[in-house]
C-alpha cells in the first residue's frame, strides 16, 4: 500500500466515479455498507444490489456494521464506504477492527474535509489530520491514500486478495451525491439480509 502518500499529494476524485469503479469490480456477491448521506446516494446510483446496505441517519456506524457482517460471514468480502466526517464520530472502531483482524473487510474513506450534506461545514480534522496515519496508528497497517483513480482500483484489487483488514482513503470533491436512496429501513434491511442468504425474499 502507498503509505508514503499523504492527502496533500493525491488527486481530488469524484465520489460517484470512485464508487462506480468499486461496484464494477464486484463479481462474487460482496457485501457493501454505505455510510449516511451522499456516500449511500452514490452507492445506490452506482448499481443497486441486494448485497448493498444503505445507512439512514446513523452517523459513523458504517465501519462497525461492516465489521459485524465480516465476522458473521468470514467467507464473504465486505466493503464499507464512509465519509470523513462520519468516521470522526467513531474513530475507536479502527482500533477494534485492528484488534479483531477480519481478513475479509475493506474500509473506504471518502474525504472532502467537510460535513457536506449539512451545509459544507469544515470537519475538525480538515487540513490538520491524516486519516491514513490515524488508521496505521490504530493498528491497521494495510492503509493507504489512493493517488488517483487507477491507483484506487489497484488498491481495491490488493484488498480483495489480502488476508488482513484494509483501509483506502480517497480525496473527493464536493459534488453532491447522484440520486437519492429510497428511505425504507425495513425494505433495506430485508433485501440486504436476503442478499446475504440469511432471510427469505420479501
Explain this structure.
This protein is of the alpha/beta class and 202 residues long. Helices cover 37% and strands 16% of the residues. It is built from eight helices and eight strands, in the order H-E-H-E-H-E-H-H-E-E-E-H-E-H-E-H. Strand 7 (143-145), helix 7 (149-160) and strand 8 (166-171) form a beta-alpha-beta unit. The N and C termini lie far apart (41 Å).
Outline the secondary-structure elements.
Elements: H1 15-24, E1 31-34, H2 38-46, E2 52-54, H3 62-72, E3 78-83, H4 84-89, H5 92-100, E4 105-111, E5 114-115, E6 121-122, H6 131-137, E7 143-145, H7 149-160, E8 166-171, H8 185-195
Parallel strand pairs: 1-2, 1-3, 3-4, 4-8, 7-8
Antiparallel strand pairs: 5-6
Helix pairs in contact: 1-2
